[in-house]
Amino acid sequence: MKLSKKSISVLSFTIGACVFVSTAFADMALGSGYDRLKNSVKNTSAQMEKGLNNYTVEALFTLKDNDQTFLQASTFNKIDNEKQASENSTKTQYSNGETTTNYSYSDQKLSIWKSGTDDKYYVTEYPDDIDRGSGNRFDNPFNEKGAPEVEKIVDALVGNLKDYVQVEERPEGGRVYSGSLSEAQVPAVVNAVSSFGIKQMISDQSRMDRNSKLPEIDSDIFVKKVSGTAVENKAGLLENLTGDVILSGKDKSGVQHDLSLNVVLKLSDIGNTKITKPDLTGANVEKVSQSGGFSSKYAGKYKNNIIIEKDGKFVKIGERILEITSVENNKVTGKYYETVKPGFEAEYPDKYNFTFEYNPSNSKPMSFFTYTNAKGEQENGQLHPSGSGKIYLDLNIEILDNNSYRSNTSHQHFDGEFSRVFEE
């Protein structure tokens, strides 16, 4: 499953905001039904990874500033563990009316990817001798490194807030967990952590996305309200989860803002989810070989423009340059760097500059290269041909398992498609 870079930027911020205030939500939502709900969460995660043959997961994130929708992001994911197939669609709507979508399909034989910004399907077919592994399409977060320690921290933080939850037995079986915390009930430690976390995330978001309209709240930040529900079916699986968090604070001008985040998660069609490989007859299709599809003809310089919106206009403030220095024995070597025009340094402070060696292999389902980002951190990247005289570069890749990855690139409106430079 692979999400668009811009969607990842938005979702990362949205989910990140939820994480920093989730102490209050977790304390409230778990409440007196703490052990039962925690066991239900664990059981649901374990079943999604290996127990359920197939199912559908839907998620909707809505972020508002003073009741005005800032963004809304949705994802619709079908997973078939038995057939080792998955299908994912995402859609993100922004306050300026812009909408981005993308789609992916994957099974043991091929993967298909399409971004809403590109009217083309990229298809990778896998030879029979490639071991794609058992490749669970969902990874249980409770099996991740450090999960037990996180669980202990949450356990310790629950404290006396257990009493704020209501647990109701459903006539048809299962339970409903619900509750809410008002401003006065939120512990001071949660407000302190939230204040620091939100200011940091807003700063990071503004740095990564210079066109972000998110208000820069920097004072008097507190959790105004937290509420949520969780519905468990008679099989002990959580079918619906909803959460609402309202954060209040003032921007540098002293204007009061209420940032509200609504999260809805739904697990459905258990045992009845059907995944069908898309029919690409007549569609614009480009096949991407697992070996990368590179040859010596791709050696050369490629560019695209760094563009921002300023004073109601689009302004070019610099360039991204990708140079393929050689392609030999299926190894691609090159360098990537960014230039910014004088006077625009503040608009684009973290310029990337690195060299790389990319060795795509037929013996592996996925290939990546490593590079050092502007902060000196090691990250994963990938590139492949993208039409005549074009190359697509993907950065900040998170490897999920043997079969899937996602791009977390939100680096200052990063554009991954580069065109060949024929004349300087």
Automatic annotation (TrEMBL):
Signal peptide: 1-26
Keywords on record: Signal
Protein name: Uncharacterized protein
Species whose genome carries this gene: Paenibacillus validus
Highest classification ranks of the organism: Bacteria, Bacillati, Bacillota, Bacilli, Bacillales
